[in-house]
C-alpha cells in the first residue's frame, strides 16, 4: 500500500472524532501557556509556537466549512498537524526545559496520544522520527541549549513506551480489521450465493421470452392476449431480480468503504426514481399495488444514487405494508419543493408509532412491533439520505398514521456543489485531440476544479490504449480528425469496448460527417454552445446520465463457436440455449479442467467462463490458455469472465491472467449478446 493511501486510511479512520481533537488542540495549546507560565512557572515557554500549533487544529473544527481546494489536502494536513503538535512540539519543549520531570511526563503523554490517534505502524514511526529529529535539531541548533538533567535511562523508557504502545495498538487494530474482513467475506459469500440462483432464474426467463416471441408469431391471434400477459409477468420478475442485484452491488460497495460510497453519485429525477420504485416493488399481490399513490406537481432533480434512493423508498413501503391489514389502509407519497430543499413525504395510515419510540427508530438494531426484523433498515436509510446531504425524520399519531419526511438539497445548492467538487478530485479526464486552446483551458482549470487531466494525440492509438481504462470520462475532439475516418473508426472500436462516458466535442460542422459508432456511450457537444463555460460545462457531464441507445447485433454465423464454462448447470444450460437459438455453436464445460480438455479437440471463437469453480477456477484456466503452448491456437481467443461480483483488485487479476473483459451475473440477454458481438466483431 502506498504512503498516500496509508495517510488517507488513517484520516478516514479518525475523521468522525476530528472535531473533538480540533477543540482540544485549538484551546489546549494556548491555554497551557497560562498554566506553565503563570500558575506553575517552567524554565521555558513560547507563546508564538503554541499559537501556531493551536491554529493548525482550527481546520479540524471547521472541516465542513473549509474551501473546496482544502479537501484535496485534508488528510495530509491531518498528519502534518499531529507531527508538529505532538513529537516536534513536545520534544522541543522537553529539551528547552532541560528534561524536567513535568516535561518528561508531558512528552510521554504526547507519545501515547499520537499512538492512539495513528494506528498505522509506518505512519506513526515516520511521524515520530521526523517530528523528534526536527524538534531536537531546532532546540540544539537555534537555541544552543545546555543539557544538565539528561539521563540515557529516559531514552530507554521512552523507546519502550513507543515500541510497546505501537505494537499493542497495532495488534488491536489488526484484530478489528480481521473482524471487518470476516464480515466483508461473509457478506460477499452471501451475495455470491444469492446471485447464482438469480442468474439461473434470469436466464430461464430470457429463454421463456425468446420462446414466447417465436410461438406468438406462430399462434393464432386469440392466444396473443395470454402470451402478452405471460411476457408481462416474466419482465416484472426480471425487473425485481435486476433491482435486487443492483442493491446487492451497492450495499457491498458501502460495506467495503465503511460508509456510503459516493463515487457513483449522479443527477437523477426524483419523480422517475420514486415511480420506478413503486412500480418495481415486490408486492405480495396485485391489490397491494393499488394501496400506493404518488402525487407531485413538478419534477425535481437530486444528486445521489438512484439504487440507494430506491432502496430507501422500498424500505419505507415495506415497513408500512406490514400493517396493510388495517381498515382503509393506504400509502401516499407526496413530492414537493420549498426554498431550500426537495421534500418527499411518505405517509401511511397504519397503526402508527408511540411517541416514546419515535426517537429510537433510527438507532441500529432497534426494532418494535415486527417479527423477524433486524432493526437495520431505517438506520441505513438515514445513512443514505445523510450521504445525499439531506435529512430524514418521522412524525406519527399512534393508531392513526405515520409520516416520514425526506429533505434533499436542491441540485444547485452549496452542499451539493461542495460534494461534487470533492468527487471531482477523484475523477480522471482524458482528452484526445490537438486543439491547444481547449487543452490549455482544461489543464489550467484542473487544479481549481479538482480533476486529474491527461491529453493524448488523436493519432497515437498506442498511447490511447494505455490510458483508456483509467479515465472516468473521455473527451474526443472531432475537429482534430477532419477527414481521417480511418483513425476515428479505430478509436471508436476501442471506445465501444468500454463503458466510460465519451464526449464528442466539435466546433466545425464538417466534423458531424464522421461516422459515429452507436455502441459508444457518448454525447455530442458543440463547444461554442457550451454554457456557462467549457470547463464547467464539461465537468457537469461527470454527474449526468448518458442514455445512449445501443443496438446489440449478435452474429448468427453457425461457424462461430462459444465455450461456456460454469459450474452452475442450470445457468449454463439456459444461457447455452439462448446462444444456440441465436446461431452460435455452444460447447459446455463445468470447470476449468473440462474446458482445457475441450480446447485440445475444438477450436472456439470465444470463451465465457465463471471465476469460482471446483477443481480449476477461471483465473488459473485463463493463465493456462494464455501461457501453455498446448493451447497456442487459443492464445488470442477472447475470454470473458462471467462472475457474480468483482472488486478492483480482482479485475486487475483478470487482466493480468489474460482475460479480455467481464460480465456481471445476472446479465440480460442484450448485455450478453452485446459483449459477445464486441469481441467477435
From TrEMBL:
<feature type="transmembrane region" description="Helical">
    <location>
        <begin position="20"/>
        <end position="41"/>
    </location>
</feature>
<dbReference type="InterPro" id="IPR003594">
    <property type="entry name" value="HATPase_dom"/>
</dbReference>
<keyword id="KW-0812">Transmembrane</keyword>
<dbReference type="InterPro" id="IPR011006">
    <property type="entry name" value="CheY-like_superfamily"/>
</dbReference>
<keyword id="KW-0808">Transferase</keyword>
<feature type="transmembrane region" description="Helical">
    <location>
        <begin position="47"/>
        <end position="64"/>
    </location>
</feature>
<dbReference type="InterPro" id="IPR004358">
    <property type="entry name" value="Sig_transdc_His_kin-like_C"/>
</dbReference>
<dbReference type="InterPro" id="IPR001789">
    <property type="entry name" value="Sig_transdc_resp-reg_receiver"/>
</dbReference>
<dbReference type="GO" id="GO:0016301">
    <property type="term" value="F:kinase activity"/>
</dbReference>
<feature type="transmembrane region" description="Helical">
    <location>
        <begin position="151"/>
        <end position="170"/>
    </location>
</feature>
<dbReference type="InterPro" id="IPR036890">
    <property type="entry name" value="HATPase_C_sf"/>
</dbReference>
<feature type="domain" description="Response regulatory">
    <location>
        <begin position="561"/>
        <end position="680"/>
    </location>
</feature>
<feature type="transmembrane region" description="Helical">
    <location>
        <begin position="126"/>
        <end position="145"/>
    </location>
</feature>
<feature type="transmembrane region" description="Helical">
    <location>
        <begin position="101"/>
        <end position="119"/>
    </location>
</feature>
<feature type="domain" description="Histidine kinase">
    <location>
        <begin position="189"/>
        <end position="412"/>
    </location>
</feature>
<dbReference type="InterPro" id="IPR005467">
    <property type="entry name" value="His_kinase_dom"/>
</dbReference>
<keyword id="KW-1133">Transmembrane helix</keyword>
<keyword id="KW-0597">Phosphoprotein</keyword>
<dbReference type="InterPro" id="IPR003661">
    <property type="entry name" value="HisK_dim/P_dom"/>
</dbReference>
<feature type="modified residue" description="4-aspartylphosphate">
    <location>
        <position position="610"/>
    </location>
</feature>
<dbReference type="Pfam" id="PF00072">
    <property type="entry name" value="Response_reg"/>
</dbReference>
<feature type="transmembrane region" description="Helical">
    <location>
        <begin position="76"/>
        <end position="95"/>
    </location>
</feature>
<keyword id="KW-0418">Kinase</keyword>
<protein>
    <recommendedName>
        <fullName>histidine kinase</fullName>
        <ecNumber>2.7.13.3</ecNumber>
    </recommendedName>
</protein>
<dbReference type="Pfam" id="PF02518">
    <property type="entry name" value="HATPase_c"/>
</dbReference>
<keyword id="KW-0472">Membrane</keyword>
<dbReference type="InterPro" id="IPR036097">
    <property type="entry name" value="HisK_dim/P_sf"/>
</dbReference>
Amino acid at each position: 500500500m502506498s504512503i498516500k493511501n496509508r495517510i488517507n486510511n488513517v484520516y478516514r479512520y479518525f475523521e468522525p472524532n476530528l472535531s473533538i481533537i480540533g477543540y482540544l488542540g485549538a484551546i489546549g495549546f494556548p491555554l497551557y501557556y497560562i498554566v506553565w507560565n503563570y500558575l506553575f512557572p517552567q524554565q521555558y515557554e513560547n507563546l508564538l509556537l503554541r499559537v501556531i500549533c493551536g491554529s493548525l487544529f482550527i481546520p479540524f473544527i471547521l472541516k465542513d466549512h473549509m474551501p473546496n481546494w482544502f479537501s484535496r489536502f485534508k488528510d495530509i494536513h491531518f498528519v502534518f498537524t499531529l507531527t508538529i503538535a505532538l513529537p516536534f512540539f513536545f520534544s522541543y519543549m522537553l529539551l528547552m526545559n532541560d528534561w524536567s520531570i513535568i516535561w518528561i511526563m508531558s512528552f510521554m503523554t504526547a507519545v501515547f496520544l499520537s499512538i492512539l490517534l495513528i494506528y498505522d505502524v509506518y505512519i506513526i514511526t515516520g511521524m515520530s522520527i521526523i517530528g523528534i529529529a526536527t524538534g531536537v535539531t531546532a532546540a540544539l541548533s537555534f537555541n544552543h541549549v545546555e543539557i544538565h538533567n539528561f539521563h540515557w535511562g529516559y531514552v530507554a523508557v521512552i523507546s519502550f513506551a513507543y515500541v510497546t504502545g505501537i505494537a499493542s495498538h497495532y495488534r488491536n487494530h489488526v484484530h478489528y480489521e480481521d473482524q471487518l474482513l470476516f464480515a466483508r467475506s461473509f457478506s460477499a459469500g452471501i451475495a455470491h450465493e444469492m446471485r447464482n440462483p438469480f442468474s439461473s432464474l434470469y436466464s430461464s426467463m430470457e429463454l421463456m421470452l425468446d420462446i414466447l416471441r417465436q410461438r406468438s408469431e406462430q399462434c393464432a391471434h386469440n392466444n396473443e392476449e395470454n402470451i402478452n400477459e405471460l411476457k408481462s409477468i416474466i419482465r416484472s420478475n426480471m425487473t425485481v431480480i435486476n433491482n435486487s442485484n443492483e442493491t446487492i452491488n451497492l450495499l457491498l460497495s458501502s460495506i467495503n468503504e465503511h460508509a456510503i460510497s459516493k463515487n457513483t453519485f449522479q443527477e437523477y429525477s426524483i419523480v422517475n426514481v420514486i415511480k420506478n420504485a413503486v412500480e418495481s416493488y415486490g408486492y405480495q399481490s396485485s391489490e397491494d399495488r393499488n394501496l400506493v399513490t404518488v402525487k407531485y406537481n413538478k419534477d425535481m432533480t437530486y444528486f445521489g444514487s438512484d439504487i440507494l434512493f430506491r432502496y430507501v423508498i422500498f424500505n419505507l413501503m415495506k415497513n408500512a405494508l406490514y400493517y396493510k391489514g388495517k381498515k382503509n389502509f393506504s400509502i401516499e407519497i407526496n413530492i414537493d419543493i420549498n426554498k431550500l430543499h426537495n421534500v418527499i413525504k411518505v405517509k401511511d395510515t397504519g397503526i402508527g408509532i408511540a411517541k416514546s419510540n419515535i426517537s429510537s427508530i433510527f438507532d441500529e438494531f432497534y426494532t418494535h412491533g415486527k417479527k423477524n426484523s433486524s432493526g437495520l433498515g431505517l438506520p441505513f436509510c438515514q445513512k443514505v439520505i445523510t450521504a445525499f446531504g439531506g435529512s430524514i425524520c418521522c412524525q406519527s399519531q399512534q393508531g392513526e398514521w405515520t409520516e416520514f419526511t425526506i429533505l434533499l438539497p436542491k441540485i444547485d445548492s452549496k452542499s451539493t456543489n461542495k460534494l461534487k467538487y470533492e468527487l471531482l478530485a477523484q475523477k480522471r479526464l482524458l482528452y484526445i485531440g490537438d486543439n491547444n486552446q481547449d487543452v490549455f483551458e482544461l489543464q489550467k482549470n484542473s487544479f481549481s476544479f479538482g480533476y486529474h487531466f491527461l491529453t493524448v494525440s488523436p493519432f497515437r492509438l498506442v498511447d490511447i490504449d494505455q490510458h483508456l481504462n483509467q479515465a472516468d470520462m473521455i473527451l474526443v475532439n472531432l475537429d482534430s480528425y477532419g477527414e481521417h475516418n480511418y483513425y476515428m473508426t479505430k478509436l471508436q472500436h476501442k471506445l465501444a469496448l468500454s463503458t466510460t462516458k465519451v464526449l464528442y466535442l466539435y466546433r466545425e460542422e464538417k466534423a458531424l460527417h464522421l461516422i459515429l459508432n452507436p455502441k459508444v456511450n457518448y454525447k455530442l457537444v458543440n463547444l461554442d454552445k457550451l454554457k456557462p463555460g467549457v470547463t464547467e460545462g464539461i465537468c457537469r457531464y461527470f454527474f449526468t446520465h448518458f442514455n445512449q441507445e445501443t443496438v446489440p447485433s449478435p452474429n448468427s454465423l453457425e461457424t462461430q463457436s462459444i465455450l461456456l464454462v460454469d459450474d452452475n448447470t442450470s445457468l449454463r444450460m439456459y444461457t447455452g440455449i439462448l446462444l444456440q437459438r441465436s446461431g452460435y455453436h455452444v460447447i459446455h464445460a463445468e470447470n476449468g479442467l473440462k474446458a482445457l480438455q475441450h480446447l485440445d479437440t475444438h477450436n472456439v471463437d470465444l470463451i465465457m467462463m465463471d471465476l469460482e469453480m471446483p477443481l480449476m477456477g477461471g483465473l488459473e484456466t485463463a493463465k493456462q490458455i494464455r501461457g501453455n503452448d498446448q493451447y497456442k491456437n487459443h492464445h488470442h481467443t477472447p475470454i470473458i469472465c462471467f462472475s457474480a461480483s468483482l472488486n478492483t483488485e480482482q479485475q486487475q487479476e483478470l487482466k493480468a491472467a489474460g482475460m479480455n473483459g467481464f460480465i456481471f451475473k445476472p446479465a440480460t440477454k442484450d448485455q450478453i449478446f452485446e459483449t459477445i458481438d464486441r469481441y467477435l466483431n
